[in-house]
């Protein structure tokens, strides 16, 4: 009796294992199931960037703005112009196509604005298949090269000088992609203070982020979201920093140092 029960238990346990060992097959005529996406183990870096500190003089801070796509935030742009605040603007080919009036303002104030490369289609400059914040990356070295070159070509066609800096969408890269972009003649622009978290922060949080900036910091924010509350915080923060005597600089104005091999 015990032998019978043991044998039965073994068979019951073995059946699921046997079935599990068989590959899943679709009935004849059914479409093939898509392969499962591999688990991403891609190592990404988000480089820091600082400009040389002023030391005993007025604190030195570099404002950088990404113009990813969409429109232009007139609150930020008018403040920069009216207050004579220099800034570095990273533009994509997509943004250039739909913002000729804003581009004209930038070009009319070469003493204030340095225009640099944010890519062709706002695709993360990552050379392996993955997603960053839900955005599909370029996925290959060839696609990274096209994202960088396509952005530069659009800038030159729009009357902008050859860019010297590149900042990819999401500001994340693989170390290999950074080396590739450097090999194309660019410095890769990181940052040290995230001013608006993709223009998603409320105004008061933006003000706190900006207020944390110290001598030598590079702040990243966005200038393409005119309906977001973050823009209000950016404007208030710029005015507050100016009132404190901060010296605003562009990346082209002052020596800088980035990590992860981005500038040296």
Automatic annotation (TrEMBL):
The keyword Signal applies. It holds the Pfam family Polysacc_deac_1. The keyword Ribonucleoprotein does not apply. Keywords: Signal. SUPFAM superfamilies: Glycoside hydrolase/deacetylase. Transmembrane segments: none annotated. One of its GO terms (molecular function) is hydrolase activity, acting on carbon-nitrogen (but not peptide) bonds. Residues 1-20 form the signal peptide. PANTHER family: GLYCOSYL TRANSFERASE-RELATED, SECRETED PROTEIN. Is involved in generating a small heat-stable compound (Nod), an acylated oligomer of N-acetylglucosamine, that stimulates mitosis in various plant protoplasts. Belongs to the polysaccharide deacetylase family. This is Chitooligosaccharide deacetylase. It comes from Rhizobium lusitanum.
């Amino acid at each position: 009796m015990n032998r019978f029960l043991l044998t039965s238990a073994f068979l019951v346990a073995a059946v699921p294992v046997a079935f599990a060992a068989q590959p899943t097959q679709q009935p004849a005529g059914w479409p093939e199931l898509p392969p499962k996406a591999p688990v991403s183990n891609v190592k990404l870096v988000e480089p820091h960037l600082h400009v040389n500190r002023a030391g005993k003089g007025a604190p030195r801070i570099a404002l950088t703005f990404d113009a990813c796509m969409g429109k232009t935030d007139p609150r930020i742009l008018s403040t920069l112009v009216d207050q004579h605040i220099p800034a570095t603007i990273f533009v994509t080919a997509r943004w250039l196509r739909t913002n000729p009036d804003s581009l004209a303002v930038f070009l009319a104030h070469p003493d204030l604005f340095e225009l640099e490369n944010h890519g062709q289609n706002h695709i993360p400059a990552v050379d392996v298949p993955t997603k960053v914040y839900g955005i599909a990356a370029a996925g290959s070295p060839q696609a990274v090269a096209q994202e960088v070159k396509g952005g530069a070509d659009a800038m030159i066609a729009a009357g902008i000088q050859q860019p010297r800096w590149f900042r990819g969408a999401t500001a994340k890269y693989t170390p290999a992609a950074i080396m590739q972009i450097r090999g194309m003649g660019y410095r890769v622009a990181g940052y040290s203070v995230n001013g608006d978290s993709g223009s998603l922060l409320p105004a008061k949080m933006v003000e706190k982020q900006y207020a944390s900036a110290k001598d030598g910091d590079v702040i990243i924010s966005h200038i393409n979201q005119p309906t977001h509350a973050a823009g209000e915080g950016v404007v208030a923060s710029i005015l507050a920093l100016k009132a404190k005597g901060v010296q605003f600089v562009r990346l082209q104005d002052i020596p800088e140092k980035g990590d992860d091999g981005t500038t040296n």
